[in-house]
Amino acid sequence: MTDDTIFGKIIRGEVPAEKVYEDDTYCAFKDINPAAPVHVLIVPKKPIPMLTDATQEDAALIGGLFLLANRIAAEQGIAEDGFRCVLNCGARGGQLVYHLHVHLLGGRDLEWPPG
Ligand code: 5GP
Q1: Atom 19 of ligand 1 has which residue's CA nearest to it?
Q2: Domain count, the chain
Q3: How far apart, in whole angstroms, are the C-alpha atoms of residue 87 and residue 104?
Q4: Which of 39, 99, 101, 103 is catalytic?
Q5: Is 39 a residue of the active site?
């Protein structure tokens, strides 16, 4: 699978980003246009374009995104007050970058429903 998205470039170090976590499987960095005081994008290095492209083989990878969100939320100091994880899928889901990712948002009261 090739990955020419901006997130692929960030993962490969070709485009700078403020990384807050990285291992062999995941990369997490601050959103360039934050929607909350804490806004981190958690990205599997495997270039799955969108949630509907994930298969049973990716079950642990997808689950791990949310466990990593827990860890980063704690590190960013928002775990106790609460936070939100968002996964946009496709055009009407508001997805702009077609490399699967979870938004971790916190540091303020978040309204529901989202726009
Ligand atoms: P999506 O709408 O696909 O769920 O979210 C894409 C997110 O990526 C947006 O919140 C946008 O601000 C963020 N983003 C787009 N380009 C860049 C970039 O070059 N660097 C960083 N750090 N974030 C980006």
Answers
A1: 6
A2: 1
A3: 9
A4: 101
A5: no
pTM of the model: 0.98
In this structure, is residue 115 part of a structural domain? no
How far away, in angstroms, is 36 Cα from ligand 1 center?
Answer: 13
Q: Which residues of 40-70 are buried (b: 16+ CB within 10 A; e: fewer)?
A: bbbbbbbbbbbbeebeeebeebbebbeebbe
> Is residue 114 a part of any domain in this protein?
no
Q: In a structure prediction context, what are the per-residue pLDDT tens digits for the chain, which is 115 residues long?
A: 568 999 999 999 999 999 999 999 999 999 999 999 999 999 999 999 999 999 999 999 999 999 999 999 999 999 999 999 999 999 999 999 999 999 999 999 999 999 8
| CATH code: domain of residue 9 | 3.30.428.10
54 assigned to some structural domain: yes
Q: Does residue 113 belong to any structural domain of this protein? A: no
